[in-house]
Specification:
With about 150 residues, the chain is α/β, with parallel strands linked by helices. The chain is built from six helices and six strands. The strands form two sheets. A four-stranded parallel β-sheet has the order 4-6-3-5. Strands 1-2 form a two-stranded parallel sheet. The chain is globular and about 40 Å long. The two termini are about 25 Å apart. The structure holds S-adenosyl-L-homocysteine (SAH). The site of S-adenosyl-L-homocysteine has 17 residues, from helix 6.
Length: about 150
Amino acid sequence: VDKVPNLAGLARTCEIFRAERLVVGDLECTRDPEFESISVTAEKHLPMQEVPPADLVPWLESMRLRGYALLGLEQTATSRTLVGFPFPRKCVLVLGREREGIDPGVLEVLDATVEIPQLGLLRSLNVHVSGAICVYEYVRSGAEGARGD
Ligand code: SAH
């Protein structure tokens, strides 16, 4: 995800729901004035980490070794519905690019993909909106509490 409004919105959502951290491809985005106006200082309270796209797969594998389930938010033939999804307490949620979605090489290493059921005609939701819906469902499911471990 590289669009500043999406990243800033995700930072705000992650801070509000106390995500352990937000991982982005390039931390430079936080210095953009547009980021600051949308995130309303979320980045000052939320740990953020940079993992360049080329390092994402090894980073995900290192998180699996630390006990995190690797989940993708994506519409795929094998995605499970978000409704009632049994979130593990410790999970990494991978979001995809605006047109291409999650890279096939990244999809391959994930434990599961989760899909938000849609009713209308358009193909997909905005990535921040999708992430926010999913993080809210995670919190609502009562799985939160990993922060600080
Ligand atoms: N795969 C989409 C484009 C990506 S939309 C397409 O073929 O048009 C950007 C990102 O938002 C996706 O990669 C995914 O992470 C998320 N997303 C959008 N709608 C979604 C849905 N209904 N369920 C799960 N994730 C969704």
